[in-house]
Each structure stands twice: as C-alpha cells, then as structure tokens.
Amino acid sequence: MRLATLFTLLAALLGGCGTAGGLVPQQSTRDDVRARFGQPTDVRKEAGGDELWEYARGPEGFETHLVRIGGDGRVKDVTQLVTEERLMRVVPGETTKQGVRDLLGRPAEQMMTRVGETWSWRYRLNGQPGLLVVVFGPNDIARERYMMIDPYNSDSQT
Known about the structure:
The protein is of the alpha+beta class. It has 2 domains: 22-80, no CATH class; 84-149, Beta-lactamase Inhibitory Protein, Chain:B, domain 1, CATH 3.30.1450. It contains 4 helices and 8 strands. It has helices at 2-15, 30-37, 84-87, 97-104, and strands at residues 42-45, 51-56, 64-69, 75-80, 109-113, 116-125, 128-136, 142-149. A 4-stranded antiparallel β-sheet has the order 1-2-3-4, covered by helices on one side. Strands 5-6-7-8 form a 4-stranded antiparallel β-sheet, with helices on one face. A hairpin with a 5-residue loop joins strand 7 (128-136) and strand 8 (142-149). The protein starts with a helix and ends in a 9-residue tail after the last strand. The model is unreliable at 1-18 (pLDDT under 50).
C-alpha cells in the first residue's frame, strides 16, 4: 500500500513540474507567460479559439517555444518547435510555407539562393549545434529539407 501511495505521489509531483520557464499546463495563466517570457515574437489565433504565442530565441538561439493558451486564459501546453522530429514532418512536394512556419516557427534566416527560397533554424542535437534547412520551390511548397552540422559554430555548449 505504501509503495502504491509513493508512486502516486511521485507521479503527481512529476506531472506538476511544468515545462519551459516553469509554466504548468492548466495552472499557469496568460499573465504568468508574459511575466516569464515577455512579449511573444508572434501571436496567432486558431479557429477553435486557442491563442498560440511563439517565443523565438533567435537568430542565434537554439529554441523556439510555442505556448498554447485556451479561451479561459490558462496555458494548455508548451512545445519546443525546433526539433528533428518536427523537421521530419516537413514533406517535400507537399508541405506549404505556412505549414513549415506552423511546424518550426519563425526561421532564424530566410534567403534566396540558386536552388530557391531557403529558410533555416538553429538547433542542438546531443549538444552539437546544427541547422535545419528547408528549400521552397516557386510554388511555395517545400522542395527539400536538410539537417546539418552548423558550419559557422562548432562549439559544444549545452
């Protein structure tokens, strides 16, 4: 019995630990988000009424957090957008610019190259800095996606 109570208590404590910046889903409010993170770099509203507050820590940063706030003003979740898993959701030949923007947040850099418009995001994988890169065709559809070691920054900070 004690062991079951201990596991229940541990699960409750871990579940309430929160996320980035100490925000706790279903407890933290819109005011808590502003107090911890300041002004968002972008705000969008979904059809269902949720507000999406983006906090891009770029162009030299490695994180972009998206805070979803429900109609009641409480945080629903906090998501780190710039990840390998999310990059892999970009499907060449299918994903639009807006779809890429929604998946990865504001790019750190946008440029025109010989191969097309190119967007990039900085990220860390196992402590190694890298670049997530998406190349768009003339129809604003992702043509290619890449992950590469950052050629300009080979430090190993965490």
